[in-house]
Amino acid sequence: MHRSLEESARRSALVPVISIIASEGNPSDVKTYLINKTSEVGDRLTVRQRQAIDYLHSNPSFYDADLDRILVNELLDGGEDKVKARLDSYTRRNELELSNTNLAKDIIDGNAGNEEIKKAFDEINKSLDLTDPEKDNEKSRILLSVAKSLVNSLPETSSRELNIINEYVSSNGNNNLGLSGDLLEKADSILANTNETNIR
Hints:
Layout: H1 5-22, H2 27-36, H3 39-42, H4 47-57, H5 69-76, H6 80-108, H7 114-126, H8 132-152, H9 159-170, H10 181-193
Helix pairs in contact: 1-5, 1-6, 2-5, 6-7, 6-8, 7-8, 8-9, 9-10
């Protein structure tokens, strides 16, 4: 299951903050205090660590100990070396995902083309921080933006027709809500042009 946009946004914001807090050491107690905030554990943290975590706990719209428990455990389980490696990996992954989100917007706005897409695909493919399904998901996000850009550029097409084509392309050709003739041909052409093998 892909992460929701809200969860991805929370992770993107929290990972660098947790990384800075944990960089001062004692990740096990940092994890415990982030989740439970017990004074006994807090006394073992540095002043800056405790103040930072207290601030997070006072801002539930930014950090929620219940909602973010899984993320905290993922980041801070294990010894200091393992935690540092994991935090570095999460930071690189979030930076790559943010870069791809910006690229997707630039594609739709007409400010990026095949050169930028190919570069992004190369970065995705060589990433050691993403799983294969995550790599496929990132590339799909970019290709979907290419498809939307092509759909929006179709001449003499009504908004209803654009919506139908968008739905067809988004479903990879599986959801045909009445496309036929020229419109179906255009939609299939867009699908063909947004196949990864056609990115040069």
